[in-house]
Design goal:
Structural class: alpha+beta
Strand content: 15-25%
Number of helices: 9
Oligomer: single chain
Radius of gyration: 29 Å
Strand order of the largest sheet: 4-1-2-3-5
Shape: elongated
Number of strands: 7
Order of helices and strands: HHHEEEHEHHHEHEEH
């Protein structure tokens, strides 16, 4: 999902957060990754309800209510099958009791987005709906046809209005209605599929798994050396068999120590693969 550059920036932690803030693709990937991982419970508690949140523009502007994770055979990945609910200024009062009930019982996890990412989500949401659409746009009623623009919030892409037409509102399989927590909100929501974003190989360097494996091997070798240092490579003791405090080093590589010739002989089958003459 993340390129090598993006992964390094994310793993660097908060000290380097400005390294990728402003990179819209990385911001979007991080938000989507956070939603899927938290729904799957891979980082602690299982969470189903998420609010895209822009503090400067009034807080939560769109709810993503995840029903389940599904296999995406065409994309060879997974998608979150969800209800997408843009919080329109005109409908917030109507949704009031349903929203309060949802927040009171389970809570909504806020996913903070920058101004640029907020605009991207308003555009991206249309594609999320079209990705799993099973209904047909009504040319006589569909807002896309009437206003001749997609998303409906274009060109300013401001929050408070739905970027999605009303054609698919409330059209959900029965599995969604089985959850009493979101049932009152479904008539105002549209089914959508949220999947990870991947970097095309020609635009950015992907994660180099061979390099990752090599680094892991180097680290394990270093840890092994640290563990062995000052102890016998055969039995693990820190003293020689004859009572001398100084262990005997391998005469060839000088990189491993033994308490006795017997231990050295017994360990040779394992050690000979790593034993190399040290250059002086």
């Amino acid at each position: 999902m993340f390129s090598d550059t993006e992964r390094k920036a994310l793993m660097a932690g908060s000290s380097n957060i400005e390294f990728y803030r402003g990179d819209l693709m990385t911001e979007m990937k991080e938000s989507i990754h956070s939603i899927i991982v938290q729904y799957a419970g891979l980082q602690g508690n299982h969470c189903s309800f998420f609010g895209l949140h822009n503090e400067k523009q009034g807080g939560n502007y769109m709810l993503i209510l995840v029903n389940e994770l599904r296999m995406d055979l065409s994309g060879q990945g997974i998608v979150a099958d969800c209800a997408l609910l843009p919080l329109e200024y005109e409908s917030v009062q109507t949704l009031g009791s349903g929203l309060r009930n949802l927040m009171g019982k389970s809570g909504i996890v806020s996913v903070k987005t920058s101004d640029a990412e907020t605009k991207a989500w308003l555009q991206f949401s249309v594609g999320m709906v079209e990705r799993c659409r099973t209904w047909t746009h009504n040319q006589n009623k569909c807002e896309y046809y009437k206003l001749k623009k997609i998303p409906l919030t274009a060109p300013d892409l401001s929050v408070g209005k739905s970027p999605i037409c009303n054609c698919g509102k409330g059209l959900f399989p029965t599995s969604f209605y089985a959850d009493d927590r979101i049932k009152p909100l479904l008539p105002y929501a549209t089914r959508a599929a949220l999947g990870p974003l991947f970097s095309p190989p020609y635009s950015t360097k992907p994660q180099d798994f061979k390099d990752m494996a090599r680094k892991v091997e180097e680290r394990l070798a270093m840890m092994s050396k640290e563990i062995r240092e000052g102890t016998c490579g055969g039995c693990g003791t820190s003293k020689r068999a004859d009572g001398d405090e100084t262990l005997m080093k391998c005469a060839r590589c000088k990189g491993i120590e033994y308490c006795s010739k017997e231990c050295q002989k017994g360990d040779w089958k394992r050690h000979k693969a790593d034993c190399q003459v040290r250059e002086t």
